[in-house]
## 1
Amino acid sequence: MSEIIATHKWERFTFRERMARFAVFLGFAIALSLSISTVEVIPEFLYDAPTQAADLLVRMWPMDFAYYPQGIHEAMLETLHIASLGTLLAIVMAVPVGIMAANNIVHFSPLNWLAKLILVSSRSVNSLVWALLFVAIFGPGPLAGTVCIGFRSVGFVGKLFAEALEETNPGPVEALTAAGAPWFSVFLKGYWPQVAPAFWGIFLFRWDINVRESAVIGLVGAGGIGMVLDTALNLFYWDRVSVILLSIFAVVILAELLVTYIRKRII
Amino acid sequence: MMSDQNNPVGTHAKRSLKIENLVKEYVPGKPILNGISFEVKGTSSVAIIGASGTGKSTLIRCVNKLIPPTSGNVYVSGENITKLTGKELRRARRKIGMVFQEFNLVERLSVMENVLCGRLGYVAPWRAWMRKYQTEDIDLAFELLESIGLVDFAHQRADSLSGGQRQRVGIARAIMQEPHVLLADEPTSSLDPKTSVEIMELLLGLSESHSLPLLINIHDVELAKRYTGRVIGLANGGIVYDGSPAGLSNENLKEIYGGASWLE
């Protein structure tokens, strides 16, 4: 055995793979330069930005806390009502659609696809766009906001609920079917106990998101704190804007804390 | 103990499971079960043995139509269940109790609720939802839990029990159906040897006390020989042995499982 056996040759990527990776990087670089040229940065405005920001902060200070009981408090409560009612509306719509989308429960693929279509269309439209739509239908106010939040959340809640259903252990379901249980009982005792923690988790998480979203949709007239913010911005009441932003921040933090606490208790 | 006691002995005599020319093809033209026929009556217990993949689980699931057979008939106490669908099928399934290898309990429900799940075929869904079970059902559930030694665990969640305890709950759930036959699909495969023996004794005891024909899929040949009155060996889609456990020779086992070295 005097001859040396050829030493092993090893490369992480083949030539083709290297070229493919290079092409992807090149594509990113081209896309980046194209977007920068489209944005059309005006240098004067960019240099001016720090001064403007400092000016804004100065105008925001001191905060007009006296305005909170006059104009903010009620709008804030309205925001919370919009978020909560909207989430409930979403749940009512999402449970049947979620069940229809779960292919281990509904063994009829056209229905699965229909459900997925509903869920995707709910998610593909931004909540501001939903808000504009419903403001056009119901007129400005909290009703438009609530329905907007509901329709926007169906896709989220329904998709996650359907996924939780699809991940359930089929064993208990088989056992209840073998006992001759009707469909609703099988769902109730076979599927539901398995998905209940996930379901309440999704519900709380979506409520948490909706508190934040409903603060924004008021900007287009869908009620709540956003409408107050819009007015203050338009009238250049910067000392009020800062109080509104601070109260939104406080409410979001409180919602977060509450949701975390409840999740710990139920799961 | 159960309402059956009031029945005349004649109805018990009718309790039977009869399988006639059962064929199951998952892929057309390639039957996994090919013309299976046998009958089980009274309190007799039958073990089905066979290598993995010979269709033991398929056979037992064809009995309650969890898997629909391709052709052939299954009679439970004289009723042909293969043609039934919908509500009639659900009614027929109540007569067939089933015990599973992985227990198939609803983990997050209490032991009591799992046992009561055996009544879901009788109870209206809204009653199940409101947990308004009939008093007789609750009494029966407590009696059963008492008899399997788990009455102290009634309010514990099923996932807090050991494997043997879970299987006992699974068996109680099947008996809650007041079935005419009892099927067990590898009931001891997930359990240690001592617990396996206890579970076999429980199954046999219940078959005796409730006059139930018992059909068990089982891997453990020794356990089958020790506890059942009759052994059916499956190989290549057909029955290659049907007789007493004592008559099961090494030749038969070779035919059922293939090869010989494992027997030495």
## 2
Amino acid sequence: MNYKNLIKIALRALNNNKFRGFLTMLGIIIGVASVISMLAIGQGSKRSIRAQISEMGSNMIMIHPGAERFGGVRQSASSMQSLKLEDYEAIARDADYISACTPSVNSSGQAIYGANNTPTTMYGVNEDYLSIRKYAVGEGEFFTDADTRKAAKVCVVGKTVADKLFPNGQEPLGQTIRFNSIPFTIIGILTPKGYNSMGMDQDDLIIAPYTTVQKRLLAINYIQGIYASALSEETSAEAIDEMSAILRERHKIKAGDEDDFSVRSQEELSSMLGSTTDLMTVLLACIAGISLLVGGIGIMNIMYVSVTERTREIGLRMSIGAKGRHILLQFLIEAVIISFAGGIIGVLLGVGASVAIKYVAGWPIYIQPYSVILSFGVCTLTGIFFGWYPAQKAAQLDPIEAIRYE
Amino acid sequence: MSANIIQINDIRRDFVVGSETVHALRGVSFGIAPGEFVTIMGTSGSGKSTLLNILGCLDTPTSGDYYLDGVSVRTMGKNDRATLRNRKIGFVFQSYNLLPKTTALENVELPLLYNPTVSSHDRRKRAMAALEEVGLHDRMSHRSNQMSGGQQQRVAIARALVNDPVIILADEATGNLDSRTSFEILTLFQRLHAEGRTIIFVTHNPEIAEFSSRNITLRDGHITEDKVNTDIRSAAEVLAGLPKEEE
């Protein structure tokens, strides 16, 4: 008995009961389609949150001084002077897991141009800051290494600052504004980024060379922080460890002693939000999985009815030479064909539904290849699992009784 | 002994029903030579169905020997008996047992589907030849539910012939048919007999015995009579003598 003949027999039997076969298949179709579309919605929203976080600089790692005590009194981080420019240089030189790195000093203050003024913050950084925070210069240009070296009084302003200082549509480029009484020439305007997910205006800032801010504005020789960008989200942890090690060595911190700085990354935020969407995905997939299970029980039910209904046929097949395993395989193949075909239609429907949701409702959708393979595999296994028992029952029928079954 | 197609020696078959043992066959022996047309008769409860099941290799005797075409069946397993049925036996049932919504040709092909040595081309050819032999060459693609009882039984006979069996076992093959169609089917059996086929026809109808070459009567699990019929009636003649059907 070859499988070709058995498949032919199973197909003929299904062909005789097309509508019933389709109804049985429907359970599997809905199950598979819902697994795929639910996972697509879950993964889509996860990815969209990730993308929002990475707008803020998802690989960003921030180092701040801190955790230092003077005589048992923990000091405020901003008052610490423990981070030096040399620390930044060492990290920029020695760390392998980072792609960009900048020292950071900042100062809040009032920016003034003519009769207009606005409170804002000036960040003193180098040109890596753009790539770390995902900023881009819209008009004009960013300051250069040369500007940094000579502590040039140049700045790049955010859209909000530009709008407040130049409300009547004047050209801000080339104008000189005053920030805390120091004159700065505007050489560039940042492309607007809007508000971040925490509701902070990301365009309300002025960026200037860190040397300028350090020397001319704050008159300090330490730095307030270091921003870096890990090579990728995955290497973020390695980057943190590496930078911590460099700083501990430079600060001569003994093993077991507390760091005198703190390192934080967006990864923490990202994983927190990620776990929420993961939970949602698991929940959706569970519901969809249950519908797949119900579909499987539908197959079992129909196969069971089919075996009872076709008892005489089974008896006949046995009396003309079919062995138990031929009957078993015939019904098993029938169940697998139902679930397999249902799986294919379900995959198409699930993908179609996901795309429809994307365009009609505008939800973010991401169809993972593994979810397609998984649900397809599960539904085929469902067919075998739920088809087995009725098929086994058919195979164990006594031909003498089966052929005379009424 | 080996010359006989079927040889049974002291066959007994007991069924245990609850705490009682029912002796369906209490020592039955006979041999059937090639080319015989044997009717096995008996009232219900005489053991003829049990005997048919054993002869058809669907059941095995409790004791006694059964040789089919020289092969001992008693010690065979389920699967070997299935193969034996597939190659050596053709069944014809009272209620035809055709597959529903399936064409005559596909129904006849069925036994060969379980025989991996027959190619699909060969299968089709043999099925067509069998249908031609029973006079249904113009009904090959008719579905079973589109045919009359007599036509369905012809398809069933074609199905029994397609594997070229050593023996055809008919179980009340005319039981569901009106008398005219019954004689048509009997005519077909007699023709097959004349062509040299060996046929065992199980029935409770004494009239049918007159058309066979040998008659075995069973009663309470024993053979009460086993006689050769020298005066065989021709079913074709009976058929010709019947009043014509109104057209």
